[in-house]
Amino acid sequence: MTPRSRAARFEAEAAPHLDALYRTAARLARSPADAEDLVQDGLLKAFRFFDSWKPGTNFKAWLMRVLYTTFVSGRRSAGPPLVDLDAVGELETPADALVRELDRPDYAEREAAVLEAVDDRIKAAVDSLPEELRVVFLLATVEDLKYREIAEVIGRPLGTVMSRLFRARKALQDRLADVARADGRGLREDPR
Amino acid sequence: MNCLDCRRLIEPWLDDALEVSDHVAILEHLDRCPPCRERLAAEERIRDRCRRALAAEACPERVRAGFGLAMRRERRRERVRRGAPLLVLAASLVAAATLRDTPTKPGSALRSGVAPETPTRLRFASRFSAPGRCPAGAHGAFVAWASAEYDALVRGRLADDEALGDDPVSRLCRGGARLSPPEEALADAARALGRPSRVAGAALRGGRVACGDRLAWRDRPVARLLIDFGDREVALYELRCRDVELAALHGAPSRAGVALVACPECDVVAVTFEDGVALLVSRQCRDWDRDWLCDVARSF
């Protein structure tokens, strides 16, 4: 087999993931123009550091890591830092939250709210999640990355990934249910 | 496993993140618990709905096209770094040599190959082909080969150093002089030339030597000059270089041009600059005359 140039190899690896990069960037950057810039900057950086990717490992996960790093470093230089949810101890452990979650009577209502929501409403609900939850949710639910890979993307332990993912999913359902409730649709019965 | 355990593990189970033992335990529980099965199905429906809503977004065509363009540019840059300019140069020299033989024939292969018949090139060609220096067949054979190789490079067929097989100078030295009689070799060169002859010469003016260093390429010493043009960098490689003063060239302007001269024993790269003449000469060459070479270089 004829060995290919570095650029040709990078292009062959990256091209299948452009859609994934863009849709993740679109949810992170929140404006189409910023998303395009983010994808281009991320690809540029990934090409520069292409040699640090280990063949045989998940290239998509590696690309996402570069994209997220690019996003975070761009955000740091552009605006005030976000609050670290884990550091301030704002959140409960997954097990505690789960006990309460399992006690809640509105599961069917929340499911209906998600299933009946149009695409734009779901996107808006995802956009309204805190960034730390949003990125984990997107990488797990849409991009099918494994917990371990997501942990590498965000630079956090596995337990943090699981905890954030759990919170993200429940928060998303709650928000969609809230919107449906406000619309007077999607309700079978007021749980109170 | 009870229902609480099962529901706690449903999410990581769907994410394919559970140990085998938990995986089996969940399957056993689901098998006998309809409410948990329904909860699992609901969770899957919710995920599927979210995935469909979010995955529908495609990368805009202009981003995709911009990426393709950037990568093509990088590939071109890589080819240049691997020494395509040397081959371009070699091609131009045979263009000049061929012009010497057929300078006034309208419609010749070279003329249609857009090689401009400038007085400079003709003068250079006549010096280059000075009788007794190198057999004309060697020049012709070498450049015919180099042109074909360059053509392959510009068409992207040779995308990596490995694909070059053997280094060009060794091939030349092994068999170039015996490859074809002079007339045939020159005719081959004329046929092979085209775009390469058009871009040589001037392409190497206006830069500055950014770096001269030595590399090992397949255990062979290689001298490399990087000439910086501001918006691009051109690398010149001298594959059989043994002992040249590269450091003396740092920062020198590359306004005059570069010449590659081939002979059956070795190759010589002469780099000429506005403020003087600097030469990179292979020590193995037994058939070069410094004054003659300086004269050649000045004639650019």
Describe this structure in words.
The complex is a heterodimer of chains A (192) and B (300). Chain A is an all-alpha fold and 192 residues long. Chain A folds into two domains: 6-78, RNA polymerase sigma factor, region 2, helix turn helix motif (Rna Polymerase Sigma Factor, Chain: A); 94-183, Winged helix-like DNA-binding domain superfamily/Winged helix DNA-binding domain (Arc Repressor Mutant, subunit A), CATH 1.10.10. In chain A, 69% of the residues lie in helices and 0% in strands. The radius of gyration of chain A is 19 Å and the shape is elongated. Chain A starts with 5 loop residues before the first helix and ends in a 9-residue tail after the last helix. Chain B has 300 residues and is α+β, with helices and mostly antiparallel strands. Chain B has two domains: 3-55; 83-298, no CATH class. Chain B has twelve helices and six strands. Chain B has a three-stranded antiparallel beta sheet with strand order 1-2-3. Chain B has a three-stranded antiparallel beta sheet with strand order 4-5-6. In chain B, helix 5 crosses helix 8 (136-154) and helix 5 (84-101) crosses helix 10. The longest helix of chain B has 22 residues, at 34-55. The radius of gyration of chain B is 31 Å and the shape is elongated. Chains A and B meet through helix 1, helix 2, helix 3, helix 5 and helix 6 of A and helix 1, helix 3 and helix 4 of B.
